Predict the structure.
Amino acid sequence: MRKLAIAILNFNGVDHLSTFLPSVINHSGEHTIVVIDNGSTDGSLEFLSLNFPGVEQICLQQNCGFAQGYNEGLNALKGKFEYYLMLNSDVQVTANYLGPMLNRLSQQDIGAVQPKILNYNQPSKFEHAGACGGFIDRNGFPFCRGRIFSMCEDDRGQYDCAIPVFWASGACLMIKSEVFHQLGGFDAYFFAHMEEIDLCWRMQQAGYQVWVEPQSKVLHLGGGTLGYESPRKTFLNFRNNLFMLVKNQSGFWPGRLFIRMAWDGLAAWQFLAKKQPRLFFEVFKAHMALYGAIPRLVRQRKRMTATALHGKCNANIVVQFFVLKRKTFQNLSL
């Protein structure tokens, strides 16, 4: 069995491959690099064959989304590698980015790890998708060391210690292959967004820890497929966050779900006040999608067991950020 497969999911991202793949090749040593192509029509595969013939290809017939795209691609690699690194196509890696993560993941009780993720265009700032390790509040709102909602902090080394967290970013997620397959991979119904948080939640419930290793560093462009103000992205984020709560929240989950949906409603009215009616409608659509999915989500709950979870906080991050004006992770009361 080989050590590591660096798996890059691609959909019509030939420009990203041209820009960012060279850094992966230069800094990944002899490890295997695999591009999982989600049915691209922009000549991505031809570009790879011509310019990077040493990069392996797994070709899917259609765009399966982030979740199922990775599931199918990594299923094709099952039994061949000890670890997988799922890496977005718009990530620039740095020298020795693999070593610290591999060392951390070699510990028996750790199932997944992420690096410090900085902004490609502003390298002094943390990047939105993962920053320096993910947390979640009592109502299911995700946030990070270095990023709360849309506020990204400057990296001054304030979060350079490795710690267990609640979730690791799918932009650069290293995971033990046996853990990925044991848990059934990502939930394909998510399509994209929040699927890594759901996976990490299930991972912790199965007895594995999730860590951030800041001695490893990458730079993420972000918003490469869907922009941060995209209506589609708004729908997926709101819907999948609710899916995740129904599947995984311990105790009396309907009460927690009701509270969360009330906060969603407030966010929707803010979209309307900001003259973004399309985003208001996407939140409404997300709630409607939840109702039809509840029977399936409840069935998935039966396979879950509650346990103590790292990085799950009893705080209300909305109140702390918007009312108490605590804009940085260090200032939060968790």
Remarks:
- The mean pLDDT is 95.
- The longest strand covers residues 209-220.
- The first helix runs from residue 14 to 27.
- The chain has ten helices and 13 strands.
